[in-house]
Design goal:
The structure is a single chain. The protein contains 13 helices and 21 strands. A hairpin with a 2-residue loop joins strand 4 and strand 5. It folds into 2 domains: about 100 residues, 3-layer Sandwich (Rieske Iron-sulfur Protein), CATH 2.102.10.10; about 280 residues, Naphthalene 1,2-dioxygenase Alpha Subunit, Chain A, domain 1 (Alpha-Beta Complex), CATH 3.90.380.10. The strands form 5 sheets. Strands 13, 14, 15, 16, 17, 18, 19, 20 and 21 form a 9-stranded antiparallel β-sheet that branches. It has a 4-stranded antiparallel β-sheet with strand order 6-5-4-7, with no helix packed on it. The chain is an alpha+beta fold. The chain binds FE2/S2 (inorganic) cluster and fe (ii) ion. Fe (ii) ion (FE2) binds next to loops.
Length: about 450
């Protein structure tokens, strides 16, 4: 099977189809781990998670267990979390602070810079000379890069520099990070880890899918209506200038990234950044009117292949780890600018619990839909789904009033009515998927 051919992308004919095997075939899944996750940049953590020397967190890139540490010298390093002796994971914890990591099997020890500092009873002389000539340090990832406190790593050296990889998607990280006076973001303590019985690309698509909102989250929409009734008349719409046209849009970037966003007049006091008018004004002075306006707009950013950052009534960082063709592990964090007021942080946490958290009113709806899709994909004789053409007729290139406000040059953009919800913003991820598979095929790997 020529895996890259499973995506039929003919923009001139307005055809975009995906073979159902992309979501269920074990060979496709194996190729994805090897030639996508283990061959490109992955988000692995925030610098603020390891703010002090010897801090560490553990994560994964594809199948590879990863140990991300700040060395005693303050330098950040990411290593394969596997002992050089017989392969045991060196650090079995999620996070902490340790100067040394001692392997639990035979006691080899590594420092926080990844250097081997002790081999148990090496001096007793049982090792041959060939052993002494080998390097015993932890194996670093091939590439490590960071942007505004977001750390990325690649197991392959064959990747563009991190700034090129992120491209103008960086602007949407800036819009979050610049909400902090110190230019730093942090995770609110605690995280939810959960699995769903579906393919990881269901999460990838859903984070860019505004079309599903009113149906999948209808119970949440009903609750919002009831809350609005009990809240009484709205206390002014101040998040957007009066003449701004409400609507929804998306920008698509190179290397698989895309962002969905919406312009909606909402009550400022419902947003962490708007809850404290004096602070909002200070941010406005610092970043300018246009950026401050965009900070208050809903933005759902997807950085291919494993990161989504959403900034609405709260902010969320979602990452995923593909476990099997039909199983995905999710990790969800509440993201916050460092230094926000107590009122803003409280509102952020309450809104996060309400909507984003695994126990909230949204994530569980989505997870059920992923599992329904996964089951439906078993109907392999049904052919490709029709789920990739909504909005395809409205895709534009070049500049718009919105790209000019942000100073970005997306590959494609769309903007429509509040009911817009296009699906063409899935294309960049799938085009990057296909590029990486084609690259592997050229190297005769698949
Ligand atoms: S496997 Fe780590 S010391 Fe033996
Ligand atoms: Fe959803």
């Amino acid at each position: 099977m020529a895996i890259s051919k499973l995506i039929d992308d003919r923009p001139d004919e307005a055809i975009f189809q995906i073979d159902r095997r992309l979501f269920s075939d074990p060979d496709v899944f194996e190729a994805e781990l090897r030639y996508i996750f283990e061959a490109t940049w992955n988000f692995i953590g925030l610098e603020s998670q390891i703010s002090k020397p010897n801090d560490f967190v553990t994560t994964n890139i594809g199948r590879h267990p990863i140990l991300l540490m700040r060395g005693t010298d303050g330098k950040i390093g990411a290593f394969l979390n596997t002992c050089r002796h017989r392969g045991t994971i060196v650090c079995p914890f999620k996070q902490g602070r340790q100067k040394f990591h001692v392997c639990r099997y035979h006691g080899w020890a590594y420092d926080s810079n990844g250097r081997n500092v002790s081999i148990t009873e090496e001096a007793s002389g049982q090792y041959p000379r060939s052993f002494s000539n080998e390097n015993h340090d932890l194996i670093p990832v091939a590439r490590l890069g960071s942007y505004r406190g977001f750390i990325f790593a690649s197991l392959s050296p064959d990747v563009p520099p991190i700034d090129d990889f992120l491209g103008d998607a960086r602007t949407f990280l800036d819009l979050i990070v610049d909400q902090s006076d110190t230019g730093e973001v942090e995770f609110v303590p605690g995280a939810s880890t959960y699995t769903f019985d579906g393919n990881w690309k269901l999460q990838f698509e859903n984070g860019l899918d505004y079309y599903h909102f009113s149906t999948t989250h209808s119970s949440y929409v009903d609750i919002l209506k009831k809350r609005n009734v009990s809240a009484g008349p709205e206390a002014g719409f101040t998040s957007e200038p009066e003449d701004e046209q409400e609507g929804q849009g998306s920008f698509s970037f190179d290397y698989g990234h895309a962002v969905n966003w919406s312009i909606k007049r909402t009550q400022l006091y419902g947003r962490p950044l708007g809850v404290d008018p004096a602070r909002l004004e200070a941010v406005r002075q610092r970043v300018g009117n246009a950026r401050a306006k965009w900070m208050l707009r809903q933005r759902n950013l997807t950085i291919f292949p494993n990161l989504q950052v959403i900034d609405i009534l709260s902010a969320q960082v979602r990452t995923w780890r593909p476990v099997a063709p039909d199983k995905t592990e999710m990790v969800s964090h509440c993201l916050a600018p460092v230094g926000e007021s107590t009122a803003a942080r409280t509102l952020r946490i309450r809104n996060y619990e309400d909507f984003f958290n695994a126990s909230g009113l949204a994530s569980s709806d989505d997870n059920v839909m992923y599992e329904f899709c996964q089951t439906g994909y078993e109907a392999t004789t049904a052919g490709p789904t029709q789920g990739y053409l909504r909005g395809a007729a409205g895709v534009s290139r070049g500049n718009s009033v919105h790209t000019r406000e942000l100073g970005i040059n997306p590959r494609e953009w769309s903007f429509g009515a509040p009911s817009f919800g296009g699906e063409a913003n899935f294309y960049p991820g799938y085009r990057e998927w296909r590029r990486l598979m084609e690259r592997a095929a050229q190297e005769a790997k698949v």
